[in-house]
Amino acid sequence: MTTTQKRVLAVIMGGGRGTRLHPLTLERCKPAVPLAGKYRLVDIPISNCLNSDINRMFLLTQFQTASLHRHVQSTYHFDPFGGGFVDILAAEQTERGSDWYQGTADAVRRNLIHFRSFPHDLVLILSGDQLYRMDFRKIIAQHLETKADVTIATIPFPVSKVEGLGLTQVNDDLSIARFVEKPKDPAVINSLVLGPKLQAQLTTKSPEKQCLASMGIYVFNRDVLAESLDNKMTDFGKEIIPGLLGKKRLFAHIFEGYWEDIGTVRAFFEANLALAQPLPPFNFFEPKAPIYTQDRYLPASKLNKCAIDHVVIGDGSILTDSTLQHCVLGTRSFIGEGSYLKDTIVMGADYYETEEQIAANAAQGRPNLGIGKGCRISGGIIDKNTRIGDGCVLEAAGKPDGTYAGGLVIIRDGVLVVAKNAVLPPGTTV
User: Fold this and answer.
1) pLDDT of 2 higher than 60
2) What CATH code is carried by the domain that includes residue 171?
């Protein structure tokens, strides 16, 4: 444990503008997007690090960082004698440049100066928008055993589903022979399929041929990282990794657990709703590797005369005489009488309203926080602190992507999204 802590620094990539997750990233960066009722995306890589005895983490980000700062600062408190931290490094102006991070490699390059202040031999580079549980001690042990310069975490994918992924051709000793970023040519993809020996070693069998896809997780020797960034290349997958082939010892680490890249609204929607299944593909109920998040000290949720089927409900929620099928509700969610929700994510609220505020809402004809009475919502994401008036009907099915209800409702990737802090008048129909 002590060895791992002293040898490794973790660097979590916070991502760019998060345009593919828009409008969920209108007022927050990708790592701060709520997940699974009570968590945020950034809790996943941080928890994986803590469960792997890695307690020194840098989080690199640059857009809409306020809510991320609040969450990290209020959640991750370390023993001052253990040397642990989660340090947020936002893009900053320096004598050498005043522009934004230009890519993953550029972001790490600009922060090498900060990493040097801490003793380390290895740098573990992670993505901030993926859902998975991984013991990083295994990839680090393999990295040391093979005397690798760089080890890339990979996951087997059937050839029919590798579009948009970086693929590796791996020798039987796990050394990497080729790396191709997001190939589209079927002939190229077929040339990268796993050999029979490695295919036979996989615990998860597949009737279809498989390739090893990069997970965007890398272990670098400290000196190799500095050397590989001594240029103007901006991206690890597109430039740095291919440029190291034949020059450094590159190895693949094969991971066979659940892994989901939450890069789009559709992927986010489906990964969240999957958690409401009886046996979800990702299990938050794993006692040996918990996922940590902010402790809010909220009361238990209260349900009055509700019909509930496959629903995750965050703390401090109040549901009254409503029907919910296959939904995920965040903390402080309010669902009014006679409302029906199906295949819907409600992110909840950051605060409770006082009796005085509720009276003022009534006087102004303004809906209270949450979802009012007699609403019908299907196939949607209701972002935080929204106010949906009585009798609203919001359904994504059969409607093209675009903006609705004066821009307060957006359908993207076939998913209906009510933007954060939006106020929908009673009777709004989409």
Assistant:
1) no
2) 3.90.550.10
